[in-house]
């Protein structure tokens, strides 16, 4: 119930102005977001990579209906990749791109514009020695996002995508994307989805996650295990052994600010551990989804309010 309300609020412009106006919000947001500008992101990348963690960076923003804004987002990614290169931090880094931030929802030619902008980001990533992963948004965008992924992979075969275990279709998508060179980040899914397309029960989502993980681990691609869930991580570690995978042909991923000790533990054990680092001003939707997925995050936020 709370999750559904928070996810509805994540898309409400009225709630957005209310939440952004709360003085304590900024300090709580800082726990999950690297900062507002490119130098903030670069600083956090330097900190995380110093102890062996890898990074994927998200220039925050989504659902734009403005062509200029979509182009600006692509330029921001290019500037970020340039800044990381300048600091010697770009090789092996990844950027995570929401297609709705680069034009997918534009009323005219949205998919075409998103593809062109995503291509520009891929060119900048290739120049920097980095990779690109397409984030997955709500289920109405899945076919479009996977279609754009296919187009991008013709020229940039290393482009990856996110699949969400809560969708009933995802096991089949994992089969389709388990071939050589394919990079798939498997997560549980963060949006409010109807029962017609998504498992509603947490245990059903977890079972689907394990089935999807099995498909990806037995496949020939590069699985990226994106979860903070100790059970999912333990199962993934077993599947790595069972499927004979080596340390360099899969990785674990977590969000910035969540379970940092476990992130360091995984990296210290010799596995690849990548941290998803969001930065920028447009933190509202991202922040509300983090509150929705864990009551403790909400408590943290409310406690901050109460002490103000
Ligand atoms: P879940 O939320 O089910 O929690 C299970 C258990 O994990 C908890 O009981 C607790 O033990 C532990 N845990 C979780 N959060 C914790 C915390 N803050 N502190 C301590 N323990 C905690 N979603 C999407 O729809 N599209 C996308 O593109 C992406 N991209 C993405 C990238 C990466 C790198 C990650 C890690 C996640 C995403 N997500 C996403 C978000 C994802 O779908 C999901 O909402 C969150 O990861 C939460 O699900 P978990 O698997 O972490 O476990």
UniProtKB/TrEMBL annotation:
Keyword Flavoprotein: yes
UniProt pathway: Amino-acid degradation; L-proline degradation into L-glutamate; L-glutamate from L-proline: step 1/2
InterPro entries: FAD-linked_oxidoreductase-like, PRODH_bac_arc, Proline_DH_dom, Proline_oxidase
Record EC number: 1.5.5.2
Occurrences of domain Proline dehydrogenase (ranges): 43-300
One Pfam family this sequence matches: Pro_dh
Keyword vocabulary terms for this entry: FAD, Flavoprotein, Nucleotide-binding, Oxidoreductase, Proline metabolism
Domain of life: Bacteria
Cofactor: FAD
Reaction(s) this enzyme catalyzes, per UniProt: L-proline + a quinone = (S)-1-pyrroline-5-carboxylate + a quinol + H(+)
Cytoplasm found in the keyword field: no
Protein name, UniProt field: proline dehydrogenase
Organism: Amycolatopsis minnesotensis
